[in-house]
Specification:
single chain; alpha/beta; 9-stranded mixed β-sheet; 16 helices; 13% strand
């Protein structure tokens, strides 16, 4: 009896000690500060930060596995967001492009009972590679923004919808902005009273930022833009993905295989192309182990590109025209992102130097689009990045309205 009592007491003390150690290890003091890059003279950014507590705080990842960029990235790519997917009414809009291709976007509309909130804004999401409005994290983010009073349109990358066949032999690419332009113009025509808010995730951010930098008139339809976890320069990112550092070459293989899954769903359409495009070598395409191999054998030929591969990467990179973007821009990257190493952060830092209304946020942890938070093991369904985007957006829109009211802009 006495031994049992001693055992129970010791077990309780060990459990208390374990919890105490966990709390100490999870302490904010052991997590590096979030780095904020912006022009010190920017009242616009300073006013947003003054009313954005989440941006000023450290991002605290999940205790047991959140400090691994690999685990965050893999879980995000496999699971998306934890918890039950919310049922929501959305409407798919299809638009014929000039070449006969059907381009689509999903429209997530807020509850009509949420009145008087953000009626003048419409969020346009450009998701990551092979993603659509059906993708879990995109769906969850759109629902979250609906609840916060925003309507959301999501670009469906051409060819990525699982139950939809392409009507012309082409799918999305890393830098082609034609499909985005069709959707922007359709939204602007149907919702002319609203300003667009562009939010790009990973590859989608590369496409969005390239679109905004290509022509100044493209920016005129947008109030602001956000770029989450992108690599900015296709040439440099491609070279880095061929290295084994931080297992990037392994991720390159996985991304290539996912691209091949999309291509294989539409193989028949590509095989029926005009005679001049019968040069597609399917054996070489399907044996691709890296994106540069797939692009050489498939992408360049489908889009009839004349340039050499790396010249094409340069032409399609948003880094070429990034510094031409004049509207407010919010960019986020994580230091432990296995796909986007810190050497690529010089591009958003350069934009900060050229755009006084630009804010670049760098976290210590988060992986590639993960940013899970919520406890020791199981994270919340809404992520840190979701909350930060909303907080920044509300603050930026308030600042823009204040500037407009006093005639600053």
């Amino acid at each position: 009896m006495e031994q049992s009592l001693i055992f129970n007491v010791l077990s309780t003390l060990c459990f208390i000690a374990f919890i105490a150690i966990c709390r100490i290890l999870r302490s904010k003091d052991l997590v590096p500060d979030t780095e904020l890059f912006y022009q010190s003279s920017s009242k616009f950014v300073k006013n947003i930060l003054a009313n954005s507590p989440t941006l000023q705080e450290r991002y605290i990842p999940m205790f047991l596995w959140g400090k691994s960029g690999h685990i965050q990235s893999v879980l995000f790519s496999v699971v998306g967001r934890f918890g039950q997917k919310e049922l929501v009414q959305k409407r798919r809009v299809e638009i014929p492009a000039s070449d006969g291709l059907i381009i689509s976007y999903d429209l997530f509309q807020k509850d009509p009972n949420i009145k008087g909130k953000h009626k003048d804004e419409l969020i346009l999401v450009v998701p990551g590679i092979c993603n659509t409005g059906d993708t879990d994290y995109v769906h969850e983010f759109s629902c979250f923004m609906n609840k916060s009073g925003y309507d959301v349109a999501v670009l469906n990358h051409t060819g990525a919808l699982k139950n939809s066949k392409i009507t012309q032999p082409r799918i999305f690419s890393y830098g082609k902005t034609d499909d985005l332009d069709v959707i922007v113009n359709d939204l602007f025509r149907k919702h002319r009273q609203k300003k667009l808010i562009g939010i790009g995730f990973s590859l989608g951010a590369q496409i969005l930022m390239k679109y905004l930098g290509e022509k100044k008139q493209n920016q005129e339809k947008f109030s602001l833009a956000m770029s989450i976890c992108q690599g900015y320069d296709l040439r440099e990112a491609c070279d880095l993905l061929q290295e084994w550092g931080n297992l990037r070459r392994f991720y390159n293989l996985i991304i290539t295989k996912n691209m091949l899954k999309v291509i294989s769903r539409h193989k028949t359409s590509f095989q029926k192309q005009h005679s001049e495009n019968k040069r597609l070598d399917w054996q070489r395409i399907e044996s691709s182990k890296a994106l540069h191999e797939l692009d050489s054998e498939f992408t360049l030929k489908v889009f009839r590109e004349k340039e050499k591969l790396y010249d094409w990467y340069w032409k399609e990179s948003c880094s070429r025209n990034l510094n031409k973007i004049e509207i407010p821009v919010f960019m986020v990257n994580a230091k432990d992102d296995p796909l986007v190493p810190e050497c690529l952060f010089r591009y958003p830092k350069s934009l900060v130097e050229h755009n006084k209304n630009c804010l670049f946020v760098v976290t210590e942890f988060g992986g590639h689009l993960g940013f899970f938070e919520g406890g020791y093991f199981r994270p919340n369904r809404v992520s840190w990045i979701d909350r930060v985007i909303l907080e920044y957006l509300n603050g930026a829109l308030n600042e823009l309205k204040n500037e407009k009211s006093i005639g600053v802009r």
